[in-house]
Amino acid sequence: MSFLQKLQNLRKPVNLSNIKIERTHYGLKFFLPDSSSEDELLKLLVRIPANAYKLPEGQGVVFDFSSRVCSRRLILHLLNSIVWEKGIKVLAWLSSDESTNNFFNSAGLSVIEPPLTLNEPQPSPSAPKPEAHIPAFKIVYGSMRSGHKVDTDGSVLVWGHLNPGAEIVAGGSVIVAGRLLGLVHAGGYGRNDVFVWAGSFETQQVRIANKLCFADPKSTTGWRKSVLITLEDGTPVIRENKFFIKQEGNLH
Fold first, then answer.
1. Could you give the number of structural domains in the chain?
2. N or C: which end of the chain has fewer CB within 10 A?
3. Is 116 exposed, middle or buried (0-12, 13-18, 19+ CB in 10 A)?
4. ∠ CA 167-169-173 to the nearest 5 degrees?
5. How many CB atoms lie within 10 A of CB 238?
6. Are 183 and 236 contained in the same domain?
7. Domain assignment present for 41
């Protein structure tokens, strides 16, 4: 997700502007720049925190090298320093360069991007179009514990805390009324008009659409406070909730 911009008033520890990351049906697709040297590319990937690759069960990562001619040294370093070190599940290694593609094949690496569906019949051109699908709004009453996962094409409201190890992937927006400590990905299926709202912002990773940013607890404005995070012109923006109600007199 392309690590391109930092949240407003939110420190991002690494600048990965040359890497584009896209949310897909199988997880994440990394578009790796062929204009960077191998050493530069490795430095960029090594600096990505391991929790950036954390995905719901059954999902993984695809590396797309475009037209780059990959050396054995590059692939070995990727396997040692990135894939095995960070525990990444790589589903496919893609390249438009014939020699690189042959190298992946000879190494037993998958070179086929996971399809959208498997063994699902396609509707005929004359078949009537289905009615427009309206994504549901899922409500979780109570806190989500470690290992609890929600994956939906709609929006999600957690009426409680999202604890470490709990995960939400939503096609729409995500609201956590309590403490946001787990993994949240709003707009996980391509939407940009979404937001993340937290009663108490305490997670080091925020995902909106194809943007990933990281928060430093020591320097992040809004840490352990109520915040709203949105995308504006493709840039993640965080706003601290400073609204309050001034009570005048007594209510009867």
1. 2
2. C
3. exposed
4. 115
5. 22
6. yes
7. yes
The answer to whether residues 227 and 144 belong to one domain is yes
Please give the single-letter amino acid code of residue 142: G
**Tokens, residue 145:** 């514990």
Q: How many CB atoms lie within 10 A of CB 53?
A: 19
Rounded Cα distance, 198 and 182, in Å: 11
191 vs 23: CA distance, rounded Å: 10
Distance from C-alpha of 219 to C-alpha of 168, rounded to nearest angstrom: 25
- pLDDT tens per residue across span 40-92: 888 878 777 777 667 777 788 898 988 888 888 888 888 888 888 888 889 99
Q: Residue 216: give the domain boundaries.
A: 137-240
Q: Are residues 83 and 157 in the same domain?
A: no
Same domain, yes or no: 211 and 162: yes
User: In terms of domains, do 91 and 146 share one?
Assistant: no
Query: CA torsion sign, 16 to 202 to 150 to 85?
Result: positive
Predicted TM-score (pTM) of the model is 0.51
> pLDDT for 220-252, tens place per residue?
778 999 999 998 888 888 888 876 544 554 444
Torsion of CA 44, 86, 57, 106, to 10 degrees: 80
CA–CA distance, 42 with 75 (Å, rounded to integer)? 10
**What are the backbone angles phi and psi of residue 97, rounded to the nearest 5°?**
-85, 125
Give which of 20, 12, 13 is closest to 234, Cα–Cα. 20
